[in-house]
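Let's practice the habit of predicting before peeking. Look at the sequence and jot down your guess about where helices and strands might fall. Then scroll down.
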Amino acid sequence: MSNEKTHPIRQDYLNGMTYKAVSLKYQIDVRTAKRYVQLNLPLSNLEQRPFNSVLDPYKQQIDLWLSAEKIYASTVFDWLVSEGCTCGYTIVNKYVQEKIREYEEAGYYRQEDKKVRHVQLNKSIFDKSKEEKNYVNSRNG
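Done guessing? Here is the structure:
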């Protein structure tokens, strides 16, 4: 038997708590709770969190976009990808939803404001349809 100390997260699990219950108690992800239980990691490791987010360099820009109007997270994600961001959609969606909720509680948006979906038209497709119209008109005229 090892003389290793059983840390509180592992002890809670051994006392019958599920990974989900442990994650809720310590406000961590279920997968993190499972890792801390299995590896018997100390709580002091949790104090080193949160880690820097991939989204951190872009948060100021996102805030600027959202301060102008409510925007769908998918639109924000598309804009970020076009700017070279390599983050996933889920992290963008979570951040946008939190910011919109924060702005709504602060009374920043009017009640009738709706989310806006910005669609960028592919210019070459648009120009091609003009060319086709001109061609058809020239044949009929």
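How did you do? Residues 121-126 have pLDDT under 50 and may be disordered.
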